[in-house]
Amino acid sequence: MPQLVDRTLCLLYRVLPAAHSQEERQTADAFALWAGEWIDLMHHMGFVVEIPPDLQFAAASVKARRTGKRPILNGPWARLSGCCDALYTFETELWPRFAAIKDTVEFCPGDHAGCATALAVLWMLKGGPRVAGCIGGSALHGPDAGPALEEVALSLYAQGLETGLTHLDKLPEATALLREAGQEVSHHKAVLGADIFAVESGIHVDGIVKKPFLYEPYTPATVGLERQIVVGKHSGRVSLRIKARQLGLNLPRTAEEHMLELVQQLAERQQCSLTDAQFLDLCHACHPPESLSSARTDCCGLSGATASVEVGHA
């Protein structure tokens, strides 16, 4: 079964200062504790973890919880790296050259040309058994880090290739640990970003509520996230209707056009979408409480299933 090897610990360990002073030793000890949590989480999801020799003892804290499904430490694999611009020659040069020894090669393409994830996926779809990279990829660790393993995993998932990875809904925990280690993870980072399932455009909201599988290669729950409907200058009447129901209100149909105008004006003034509190304030400011009947909050299409709310057209 294909293996995805996470190099995150090695990459972060390189930038730790040498532990000469008391403060530096405390930093190293804190990192070792953090590393134990990281190893435990990665193993729980099914990734292989590459551990720096000086941090081997960090694995001891998770030995009791190991399932035996995956090894934790790297074996004697030859690492093939530096193929950062080989996407267009993969079929004609790279794969024919290394196919015969693929079972001994750990592929770790660089991302200087922005195609490391695509190369890693191609390698595995061709039958390559092992890819090395890191959670977050070059966006967090630089182009020499290799592909973003979470992107590789979800790309293979969309292709129907079995990787043995489980509990990818724990990826938000990995994001939290990366932030704890000082890494800046964008809210729009593919797979890891908290806002990747936030939708605003009226026609997009209309379509995604009716047929989410046409817009999303995997459900939000697959990676431990939720779909969010936000309202702003690109919203339509459907967006307002669904957002109101998500917040427990039934917005009168006769009021939608006026509300849409107010929402778009406010979003234009502040140059960003509205918060839930701002939207609720507009609803209550424009309509008396008796006109805003309560609504079920489980019929907004936010769980990945087709919505039961009547949506009409944006």
UniProtKB/TrEMBL annotation:
Its EC number is 2.3.3.13. It is an enzyme of class 2 (transferase). The keyword Ubl conjugation does not apply. Keywords: Acyltransferase, Transferase. Residues 192-270 form the 2-isopropylmalate synthase/homocitrate synthase post-catalytic domain. GO terms for molecular function: 2-isopropylmalate synthase activity. This is 2-isopropylmalate synthase.
